[in-house]
């Protein structure tokens, strides 16, 4: 099938102090996140001058993908749009329409299924197309890539490098963004029994640990928000470091398997909060870098594109593991797949 563009679809982040509050309001609109949590998270952003690295990292990754497309002789202009901050997906899809784009592939910057990691990007696609009107380009989203060999090898090499900086016997701990337990239960089509997000995170961790030659590891969660009475996936990375310390562990390598770039949730929640806890306990700490700046990440994106443009055989390390994510115009992967949780009224 023929496509005339790629839309790089990401989360978005503030690019100056005045952007922070409106950005956070976009992220949490109608989601019942307590104002105290927002004030706290605002401080994390202001600590870095109100600038999240995420937009810069996306622009760098896009430049690498453009270069890789040129190297492989694939002609496809790349556009950049976000869910929560400028350039917003609505603005970008408007530009694509004005440029005469009819059909585009969409690369979402998340490797996983689940509401926040997959279905919400479909909602972004729907919203952006609705804003563009009846002639909006057709938008075909690329699939989950948690078990793609290029994703796994990139994290595995980075993990090996990080472990080499730590004393022998360091514990390897994978982390991904926590979500409400109810959201994880609703992840995947109902017949699958839920948990598609946490299961894929667990499988990616298993693959990376195996490729890095590590037999024992843990999978934990980070960056929890929402009111405390609502259960989220746990344990939290900071609590887990305490538990490991109590068990006599003296060194920890943290691999942010749930993310593709060193954005704010990584540089604050891990490099700051988790590292501080480890330091306080006298536990050696090192964080594995994410794939964003690895040349294999650009190769991965181009390979996912060529699955569509040239019918390239999808490469998966766990082909029997449930995965999806390839949607047309933001329609769900399957009926009731990753249904949005019931949200408190605004
Ligand atoms: C699964 C998942 C991913 C991974 C998939 C993916 O990468 O898409 C992810 C990524 C990210 N999350 C990010 C930032 C934030 N997430 C928040 C809040 C929330 N995240 C959730 C889930 C996820 N989030 C959920 C269930 C909430 C509660 C509110 C709601 O139900 O939606 C809040 C609100 C304040 C707070 O409470 O923390 C912020 C600021 C940034 C940008 C960092 C930067 O600026 O550099 C990125 C990449
Ligand atoms: Fe988040």
From TrEMBL:
<keyword id="KW-0963">Cytoplasm</keyword>
<dbReference type="Pfam" id="PF00762">
    <property type="entry name" value="Ferrochelatase"/>
</dbReference>
<protein>
    <recommendedName>
        <fullName>Coproporphyrin III ferrochelatase</fullName>
        <ecNumber>4.99.1.9</ecNumber>
    </recommendedName>
</protein>
<keyword id="KW-0408">Iron</keyword>
<keyword id="KW-0456">Lyase</keyword>
<keyword id="KW-0627">Porphyrin biosynthesis</keyword>
<dbReference type="InterPro" id="IPR001015">
    <property type="entry name" value="Ferrochelatase"/>
</dbReference>
<feature type="binding site">
    <location>
        <position position="121"/>
    </location>
    <ligand>
        <name>Fe-coproporphyrin III</name>
    </ligand>
</feature>
<keyword id="KW-0350">Heme biosynthesis</keyword>
<feature type="binding site">
    <location>
        <position position="52"/>
    </location>
    <ligand>
        <name>Fe-coproporphyrin III</name>
    </ligand>
</feature>
<comment type="similarity">
    <text>Belongs to the ferrochelatase family.</text>
</comment>
<dbReference type="InterPro" id="IPR033644">
    <property type="entry name" value="Ferrochelatase_C"/>
</dbReference>
<dbReference type="GO" id="GO:0004325">
    <property type="term" value="F:ferrochelatase activity"/>
</dbReference>
<keyword id="KW-0479">Metal-binding</keyword>
<feature type="binding site">
    <location>
        <position position="265"/>
    </location>
    <ligand>
        <name>Fe(2+)</name>
    </ligand>
</feature>
<comment type="function">
    <text>Involved in coproporphyrin-dependent heme b biosynthesis. Catalyzes the insertion of ferrous iron into coproporphyrin III to form Fe-coproporphyrin III.</text>
</comment>
<dbReference type="GO" id="GO:0006783">
    <property type="term" value="P:heme biosynthetic process"/>
</dbReference>
<dbReference type="GO" id="GO:0046872">
    <property type="term" value="F:metal ion binding"/>
</dbReference>
<dbReference type="GO" id="GO:0005737">
    <property type="term" value="C:cytoplasm"/>
</dbReference>
<dbReference type="InterPro" id="IPR033659">
    <property type="entry name" value="Ferrochelatase_N"/>
</dbReference>
<feature type="binding site">
    <location>
        <position position="177"/>
    </location>
    <ligand>
        <name>Fe(2+)</name>
    </ligand>
</feature>
<comment type="pathway">
    <text>Porphyrin-containing compound metabolism; protoheme biosynthesis.</text>
</comment>
<dbReference type="InterPro" id="IPR019772">
    <property type="entry name" value="Ferrochelatase_AS"/>
</dbReference>
